[in-house]
Design goal:
CATH superfamily of the largest domain: Calcium-transporting ATPase, cytoplasmic transduction domain A
Number of helices: 5
CATH class of the largest domain: Mainly Beta
CATH topology of the largest domain: Calcium-transporting ATPase, cytoplasmic transduction domain A
Distance between the termini: 22 Å
Order of helices and strands: HHHHHEEEEE
Shape: elongated
Helix content: 25-40%
Radius of gyration: 26 Å
Strand order of the largest sheet: 2-1-3
């Protein structure tokens, strides 16, 4: 990040709207489409898919499996191949069953995520419009209601009794009332 560039939440709303080339009435539909093409979809980087071999090898990383594999090596070292082969067969079958189960779970989750579509309400041409969160672009004015998930980095332009549940953050165990406007960055002293 450029040292001279301010973080968006420390810029007054009117100045931020000017920088983003938008108004409190939101973007025009045509402008939003152009920005979506220019900036891309509002998505997090997708997690890298695990291939089948990686998923299979992951089954043999648990401590109990490693102890059993050590027992296999020890059995071979002590010239007891029957015990070693029995333990090895159990470990192999356990790994295959774990692989089969985990692969099925991964596929089920991927199918569910493909079905679910989160939507948000934005102002386009001055009127509220419901769109998929992937289509939110820089300069959009998002309307939030009780229980909504915040779909992107946002600056609150106006609010009435807005509370945000930050319990998912480890340092914020309760709800906090959020004022509209901007926050000045805290200055740090030389000692920290």
């Amino acid at each position: 990040m450029n040292q001279h560039q301010q973080v968006f939440w420390s810029i007054p709303p009117s100045e931020l709207l000017t920088q983003l080339g938008t108004t409190p009435q939101g973007l025009a539909d045509d402008e939003a489409k152009e920005r979506l093409i220019r900036h891309g979809a509002n998505l997090l980087k997708p997690r890298q898919k695990s291939d089948a071999l990686t998923l299979l090898l992951a089954q043999f990383k648990s401590p109990i499996i490693l102890i059993l594999l050590f027992a296999v090596g020890l059995s071979f070292f002590l010239h007891d191949p029957a015990d070693a082969l029995i333990i090895l067969a159990i470990v192999f079958v356990s790994g295959l069953l774990g692989f089969w189960q985990e692969r099925g779970a991964v596929n089920a989750v991927q199918k569910l995520l493909a079905i679910v579509q989160i939507k948000a309400i934005v102002l386009r041409d001055g009127t509220p419009k419901e769109i998929p969160v992937e289509e939110i672009c820089p300069g959009d004015v998002v309307i939030l209601n009780a229980g909504d998930v915040i779909p992107a980095d946002c600056l609150i332009l106006e609010s009435k009794d807005l509370f945000v549940d930050e319990a998912v953050l480890p340092v914020r165990p309760t709800q906090w009332k959020k004022p509209s406007g901007f926050s000045r960055p805290k200055r740090r002293s030389a000692s920290g």
